[in-house]
Amino acid sequence: MTSPADVANPLLFFFMVITLFPLGLGPDPARLATLAPGILWVVALLASLMVSAKLFASDFEDGSLEQLALAPYPLAVTALAEVSAHWLATGFLLSLVSPMFAVMLGLPEAGLATLLISLLLGTVCLTLIGALGSALTVNIRRGGLLLSILIIPLNVPVLIFGTTAVREAVLGGNPESWLALLAGLALGSLVVVPLAIGAALRVSLDS
Amino acid sequence: MWTFIHKLGSPPWFFGFSGTLVRWLLPITVILLLVGAVWGLLVAPPDFRQGNSYRIIYIHVPAAVVALAGYYVMAFAGAVSLIWRIKMADVTMRAAAPVGAVLTAIALVTGAIWGKPTWGTWWVWDARITSMLILLFLYLGVVALFEAYENKTAAARACAVLSLVGMVNIPIIYKSVDWWYSLHQPASIKFTGESAIDSSMLYPLLLMIVAFYCLFTVTLLLNMRAELVWTHRASGWLKQLVGDS
Predict the structure, then answer these.
(1) A136, B178, B206, B222: which is deepest, by most CB within 10 A?
(2) Which residues lie closer than 8 Å to B171 by C-beta, 6 or more apart?
(3) What is the extent of the structural domain holding B224?
(4) Helix or strand or coil: residue B186?
(5) Cβ of residue B169 closer than 8 Å to a chain A Cβ
(6) Residue A45: which H helix or E strand, with range?
């Protein structure tokens, strides 16, 4: 993160793509309300793809990634620190503003809290997986599209659990089990994915 | 046992060994495929509800089964390559990805062809179909990542990391897609069958699955041999081999 634009642009992207949906689907509030959980979650996923492309890029270009790899800490731990900072600036903020956009799309109020919690948990997974994609493609020119191809299939469970939790809450059910699954995914990813990121960064540095 | 594994890591030795293996396995595969196809397509009785259209199962199910197994072969080779840095494991992983992708595509296409007369539509977002589609994406991701790297040693290690993460993720993807589908299940489609399959239909199916495993192995080995010839085109042992024959 180097400038305020890096923080603002993903949120703007999120806002703008969400605006496209009423324009494309028509302004019917009832239909938008039923589609809202899916729209919000898919756009959040796309936003995370956009921001993760650049996650390790500047560190790689100016050589600080190499210095971090030489540091006496495991690269996985350093990577986890970087990813946490990145999440605070992107996924965390995006989750915080998401209820506002949800209201604009007419998502029933019963779903708002669940949307916030599900995105807070889900963006942890999205950011970690995105960081893995970034680590794998940082040394490849025009890696942005490749990164999306690599990580979209890996994000499928997060999307399913997230949207299902919100929909469950909207329908008056209990979303706790879905949120628990998301929390489980987030915790599991926190343990496993940094190791993969560390290995991927070493590959990129060696190549 | 250990010397055998050590030998497997040596390209010249593997080239000779795989040549012998292919020479035996290729005819066996052809025979199994022919017997299975004739048995399944001509001898097995028609289904009482689907008539003859069900016979595509003899291509569809074996392709799907082996496609999934192929991912585990690829990921296992990736793990071996990451841990022990064995060159042959890289070659195995690289060779397995396109074969698995093609098998997944075959399973999806035959599924669509089967779906048209059975369900009246080419495509439904059914749990198993969707999972197979995502498996295809995972395969294509590995292929795309490999192609993107210029340094092929790094490419193999990057793909190993990706396929290992994918392997951990596959059960989660399958389970989540399963739940997703059961929550949204459209009432119009009801698919029953495999579990209640009669033995007269099951045996040719099992034979075809074995045949597809052999086909996968042969294709994998041929793919690896082609790769070895290309990467070692300048080495002495290969020139010697070509000169001999």
Answers:
(1) A136
(2) none
(3) 19-45+52-186+200-231
(4) coil
(5) yes
(6) helix A29-52
